[in-house]
Amino acid sequence: MGSNNKFSIVSLGCFRNTYDSEIVAQRFEDRGYKFVPLWKKEASVSKKAPLDILIVNTCGFIDKAKKESIDIIREAIDYKKEKKTRNLYVFGCLVQRYKKQLARAFPEVDQWWGVEQLNASNSVHRDISPSWSYFLKICEGCLNRCSYCAIPLIKGGLRSKPVKDILTEVRMADKNGTKELNIIGQDITSWGKDFRPQKNLTGLLENILKETSNIKWVRLIYTHPRHITDSLIELIATNKKVCKYIDLPIQHINDRLLKKMNRKVTKSQIKRLIKKIRKIMPSSVIRSSVITGFPGETEDDFRELLDFLKEVKFDKLGVFTYSREENTPAYNFGSQVHHQTKKRRFSRIMELQQKISAESLIKFLGKDLQVLIEERKEDIFIGRSEYDAPEVDGLVFLRKKGLRPGDFYRAKVVGAYDYDLLAE
Ligand code: SF4
Fold first, then answer.
1. Nearest ligand 1 atom, CA 143
2. DSSP string covering 228-296
C-alpha cells in the first residue's frame, strides 16, 4: 500500500463507465486507500500532499470521446509531472482498443488495463455518483452488432449477470439509502438472451421491484426498439416505482440505412412501437438518439429523418455525427459523408429539437412534480424529475428554502425553458 494511500478517479464516458469506476474505487478502498474527490473544493492535493495514485477511466466509443480521453490522459501526466500524484493508472475502453499505441505514446503512465468483468463486491457505495442514485449494470457486451459500433469490439458479446448477483446488489443498494436505481447495460432489453433457457428483462424487473423498499424510482436506460416487449411496456405502465421514462435509441428512420446499420428494425416497426407506448402511457417521456452522416445518407434520407422527428416529437433527443470507427463493418462502406455535411445536418436537428423540447416541457406548467433534490447553488436547489436521467437530461430548479440533497420534494412547475423547468 502507498505511503500516503490517497487515490482518485477521473471517470469519462457513459454510465457504464461510472459503474466500473465505482467498482475500481471500492477495490482500492478495500486495500486501505482513501478516496479523494478531486472535483470537490475540499480535496486537498498538492506537491506537499500528493495522491499516491490517480486513475483515469477512459472512453473509446467514438472520435470525440477518444479525443477527450487522450486530452485527460495528457492533463493527468502534467499532474504527475507537477508531483501531485506519485502514480498514474489508465484503464477502460480506449485502453482495450489501443493499449500498445497508448503505452508507446505515454510512457509516463505506470499501469494500463483494459475492460474486465467488474462485479460489485460485498458492499455498494458511491465515491463518484451521489449516494441516492445508483447505476445497476445488469449485463456486459452486446449481441446486436450494429455496423457502426465499436462496443462489441471492446466489450465482446452479451454476458448477462445472474439474477442472484443482481438481486444481491439491489438489496445492498436499497439498504445503503439509494432512492433512484438506474438499470444499465449496452442494451438492457437483451438481458437473459444468452441464458439457456432464455430469461427476459420483464421477469428480472419484477424481481428487482420486490427488493426495493427505500428505492422510489427505478429507471430503465439503453433499451433497443427491436427487443422491447409488450409485457415490459405493461410493467412500466402499471408499476408506480418504474419511471415513465422510455430511453429508446432509434439511430435513424430510413429503412435502407436502418438495414445498413444492422439495427434489425424497420421504420414502420419503430412507428408502431412509439404509438403503442404513447397509447398505453400518454404521460410518459420518450428519449431517443440519432446518428447523422452515416455512410450513404443522402439529402432525401436526411430530410426523411428530419420530417420524422418533427412528426414524432421525442421529448428528449441525443444527436451524434457518424464516427468512422476502424474494424467496424461501416468503416469500409462507400459514400462516406463529408464532415461539413455531417455538422450541418447535426445543427439542423439540434435546432429543431430545441423547439420540440421547449414545447414538450410546456405541458408540465401548473403541474405537481416529484423532484429528487441533488444540489444547492446559492438560494436555488437543483433536482430532477422521474422524466430526467442523471447527467444527460434537463433539470428542475427550485426556488425553495430548507431542502436537502437526496430527498424527494413535491413541487408545482411555474416555468418551462428549452430543456429545464422551474418549480416551487
Ligand atoms: S445496440 Fe448499442 S452497444 Fe450494441 S452494437 Fe448497437 S449501438 Fe453498439
1. 4
2. --HHHHHHHHH-TTB-SEEE---B---HHHHHHTT----HHHHHHHHHHHHHH-TT-EEEEEEEES-TT
Instruction: Mark whether 237 and 356 lie in a shared domain.
Output: yes
- Residue 209 covered by a domain: yes
**Residue whose CA is closest, atom 3 of ligand 1?**
186
What is the span of the domain harbouring residue 414?
A: 368-423
The Cα–Cα gap between 83 and 366 comes to 54
Per-residue pLDDT reduced to its tens digit, 184-223: 999 999 999 999 999 999 999 999 999 999 999 999 999 9
Report yes or no: 159 and 141 within 8 Å, Cβ to Cβ: yes
Give domain status of residue 392, yes or no.
Answer: yes
If you measure from the C-alpha of residue 146 to the centroid of ligand 1, how many angstroms do you get, rounded to a whole number? 6
Q: Are residues 259 and 169 in the same domain?
A: yes
CB of residue 223 inside a 6 A radius of ligand 1: no
Backbone angles phi, psi at 48, to 5 degrees: -75, -35
For residues 275 and 351, state if they share a domain.
yes
For residue 45, what pLDDT band results from cuts at 50, 70 and 90?
confident
Q: Is residue 126 part of a domain?
A: no
What's the pLDDT score for residue 169? 95
Examine the domain organization and report whether 315 and 245 are in the same domain.
yes
Average pLDDT, stretch 110-128? 69
pLDDT of residue 46: 79
Residue at 172: amino acid letter: M
Total domains present in the chain: 3
Whether 148 has a pLDDT exceeding 70, the answer reads yes
Structure confidence by residue, pLDDT tens digits, 52-61 = 999 999 999 8
Residue 22 near ligand 1, beta carbon < 6 Å: no
Q: Give the end of a domain, one of 319, 344, 362.
A: 362
| Global pTM value | 0.93
Does residue 151's CB lie within 6 angstroms of at least one atom of ligand 1?
yes
